[in-house]
Structure formats: structure tokens, C-alpha cells
Amino acid sequence: MNRAVSFFHKRATPSAAHLFRAYSTPTTVPEAQVALWTADGPKVVSSTEVFKGKVVAFSIPGAFTPVCQNTHVPGFVEKAAEFKKLGVRVSCISVNDPFVLEAFKKECKAEDIEMIGDFTAELCKSMGKTIDATGLGLGVRGDRFAFYAEDGVIKSFGSEESPLEVTASSAESMLKEVEKSSV
């Protein structure tokens, strides 16, 4: 394990209280300014625009971080066609700028996943879903969570106990939630 990954694994555990805070589950996607990458470059838009229709969104603490790049995003890349077949878009939220997220999208071969830059953490903060990873040199980040929403109304929500886990926010878990809603 390289030094940076080892440091993150040692520091980012459920007992590392400085990384976590209590929060409740939101019922609608809050209004926030987010950034998308377009053919013309970065574009700032409203979250209400982004979450129109049926969307599964998952939040990662940061692009190019080990669990996000090696586990969380690949799960959604693998299941993207199944979500599409159900008429559901897949979006990834991260507290990163759109330039970083476009490079991350290419690196992960995530062509079918919309990358949403929560560049000021406004969306994650308004959802009460942030972690303070300042002790790791990362600052305030979005926590690891996922939700299924229809026109901004959250139908299902999964949040992890630790940013190192990918269970409740996994592609498999969210696909099951979408399938339950489709019945």
C-alpha cells in the first residue's frame, strides 16, 4: 500500500470522529449552484436543472482518491446500461472543479456518468452530508452517499458509516432501490 493510501486508511476510520458529523436524510434535492462540463467547457447551473427526471446520484469524497476511483465509480460504470434501460440517468457528485472531474471521468472510462462539480460543497452542505477531512489535507468534502430522485424528490437514500465503505451507496444497492420504485 503506498504511503498516501496507508495514511488515509489509518486516519479515515469510523473512530476518527473529526471526519464525521450527524445528519438527517433529506427529502428533496436542495437548490445549489453546481458545475458541469459541456462541449464549451465548464458551466455553472442550478441543482434543480440537474435533477430533473429520474436520476441516481452518488457522492464521492474526491476524484482520484482510492476508494472512489477503484471501487465506487467502477460499480456505477458497470451498471450504467442497466440504469439507462430503466430510464434513469446516473450522476456523480464530488467537491471538485469541473476540470478535475472531466479528467477523472476519462480516467475511469465513465462516459455514461454525468459528473457534477459541487465546487463550493454547497449542495452537500445543504444536504447535511459533508465530512471534514482537513486533517488529511483534503478540506471539507461531500460524504459518501447515494440517492434516487424523480424530479428532485428523493425516493431512496443510502449513506455510509465510513467514507471507506461502499455498500448503501453502491450501484447494486441503488439499482435495487430503482427496481423497487418501478414496480
Automatic annotation (TrEMBL):
Which residue intervals define the domain Thioredoxin in the entry?
23-180
InterPro entries, sorted: PRX5-like, Redoxin, Thioredoxin-like_sf, Thioredoxin_domain
Q: Which keywords annotate this record?
A: Antioxidant, Oxidoreductase, Peroxidase, Redox-active center
User: Does the record bear Oxidoreductase in its keywords?
Assistant: yes
Q: Which Gene3D superfamilies match?
A: Glutaredoxin
Biological process annotations from GO = cell redox homeostasis; cellular response to oxidative stress; hydrogen peroxide catabolic process
- Keyword Oxidoreductase present in the record's keywords: the answer is yes
Q: What is its EC number?
A: 1.11.1.25
Catalysed reaction, written as an equation: [glutaredoxin]-dithiol + a hydroperoxide = [glutaredoxin]-disulfide + an alcohol + H2O
**One Pfam family this chain carries?**
Redoxin
GO molecular-function terms, A-Z: thioredoxin peroxidase activity
The residues responsible for catalysis, as annotated, are C68
GO CC annotations on file: cytoplasm
Give the residue range of the signal peptide.
none
Q: Which family does it belong to?
A: Belongs to the peroxiredoxin family. Prx5 subfamily.
User: What is this protein for, i.e. what is its function?
Assistant: Thiol-specific peroxidase that catalyzes the reduction of hydrogen peroxide and organic hydroperoxides to water and alcohols, respectively. Plays a role in cell protection against oxidative stress by detoxifying peroxides.
Q: What is this protein called?
A: Glutaredoxin-dependent peroxiredoxin
